[in-house]
Design brief:
Number of domains: 1
CATH class: Alpha Beta
CATH superfamily: P-loop containing nucleotide triphosphate hydrolases
Bound molecules: adenosine-5'-triphosphate, magnesium ion
Distance between the termini: 57 Å
Helix content: 40-55%
Oligomer: single chain
Shape: globular
Number of helices: 12
């Protein structure tokens, strides 16, 4: 049950069809998984406090997945308990007119987390190599200069993304990326629940079913994107997403380990302040 097993190698050898959508057979009961998640939530709460006080690193968590893979609920359950002031979530949908007037990294750059904060991207600039690759007609609204060469544009985008992430990493942003790997069958079941359960109706959109029709094209776009952009300074994790409690725990444990590796420390009081501590303490205690 090691989350590290899900890290996508950095050498381009990742094969999507070998990547599991469900957990191994010997996993604990749902009750135990939830208990373990609560423990991870508690660790994350403490780590985030220290990350904030230390104020040297930012943490960027990127979530990508097919519809109904559980991005929203994973973010909700994993971040439960973390101080909302130290955590920012942004969902990236179809770009606005203003956003289309800029290069494809611009809109997310303005939402990057500050030092001491955890920033979460629910979808991201990776859509530019996924939905746009499956629907290259979207490129025509992007006002790109010159002729667009569909043979080279995706590789240029991968390169831009690698350079961008490398720059962020070397300037203090810890980047962790999650691909929630849901099976086509499980997606169907979740869409059916969205139709059958009135409280979930609002989540159902007929375009989701239309996109499902492009499943294989999405999978090949995902496989290439994951291989081209999983690097030591910004690794991807392929999390099996058919079992939600298991997926949430794997994501939480991955984040805990990543923030622990930053080895944040609470800053020590400066000597020039510390010399006043005893006097201030006496003054406070003597107040009536
Ligand atoms: P939900 O789980 O609630 O359905 P969602 O993330 O799917 O959440 P939607 O509003 O349903 O949100 O869909 C957002 C849509 O925006 C997705 O289909 C996504 O592919 C699309 N999108 C995101 N970024 C881009 C982009 N750069 N260019 C074109 N489409 C994009
Ligand atoms: Mg959707």
């Amino acid at each position: 049950m090691k989350h590290n097993n899900y890290r996508i190698p950095f050498d381009g050898s990742f094969k999507l069809e070998k990547s599991p959508t469900g957990p191994a057979n010997d996993i604990p009961s749902d009750k135990k998984l939830k208990k373990l998640l609560a423990e991870a939530n508690d660790k994350l709460y403490k780590l985030q406090r220290c990350l904030y006080a230390h104020n040297r690193h930012a943490v960027l968590l990127v979530f990508q997945a097919m519809d109904a893979a559980g991005k929203d609920s994973t973010i909700r359950h994993v971040m439960r308990g973390v101080n909302p002031a130290g955590c920012q979530v942004f969902a990236f949908k179809q770009p606005s007119k203003e956003e289309l007037e800029h290069d494809f990294l611009w809109r997310s750059t303005t939402r990057l987390p500050e030092r001491g904060r955890i920033g979460i991207f629910n979808r991201s600039y990776y859509e530019e190599t996924l939905v746009v690759r499956v629907h290259p007609e979207y490129l025509s609204s992007q006002n790109l200069p010159g002729d667009v060469d569909l043979k080279t544009i995706w590789h240029k985008r991968f390169q831009s993304i690698r350079e961008h992430e490398s720059h962020l990493a070397s300037n203090g942003t810890k980047i962790i990326k999650f691909w929630l790997n849901v099976s086509k069958e499980e997606q169907k079941q979740r869409f059916l629940q969205r139709i059958d359960n009135p409280e979930k109706n609002w989540k159902f959109s007929k375009t989701d079913v239309k996109e499902r029709g492009h499943w294989n094209e999405y999978m090949s776009a995902y496989q290439e994107m994951l291989n081209e952009t999983s690097r030591a300074n910004a690794p991807w994790f392929a999390i099996p997403a058919d079992n939600k409690p298991y997926a949430r725990l794997m994501v939480a444990n991955t984040i805990v380990e990543a923030i622990e590796s930053l080895d944040c420390k609470y800053p020590e009081a400066l000597e020039e302040n510390r010399v006043h501590f005893d006097g201030m303490k006496q003054q406070l205690l003597l107040e009536d």
